[in-house]
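User: Could you check the structure of this?
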Amino acid sequence: MSLKKIVIFVLVTVLCSFAVFGLYSMEPVKEVKPKESAVLKTVTFQMLKPVSDSFNVTVYGESYPRWSTVVRTQVDGEIKYISDKLQSGSVVKAGERLIEIEKSLYEVAANEAELRLKNAELRLLEEEQRAKQAKADWADSGLDGEPSSELVFFMNRSFSWRRRR
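Assistant: Sure, the predicted structure tokens are below.
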């Protein structure tokens, strides 16, 4: 071996020894801990009693009634008045006026219906008179017994209606 190689070997060994010795002689790195305050903080507390409170919450949306009713008239006519309560979801009382119709048209319709009723009652009275007259004529005829048909005395369905009424 040559002298040069031995000198390099010794030099590298010495340097490595110093490096190892230096690393072992160093102190380990300590973790950095936050400083704790030596002053104690004062804590206060308060006893609370439960209370009721109301809140207003504004909500935007659309609601629908559970039930709905259609208001229809029995006669035609021009509408003169509509109540403000005639809206979806409004509460109304029994007998409360919701709509007012022009009186002339439905009064005419009511009068016409009453006239038809009176004419029907008049026809019924006429038929009852005819029946009485037919019975009197049968009695004056001198025939014995009853006629073979009720129609002889004008007895038909109109009399049975009158009896039920």
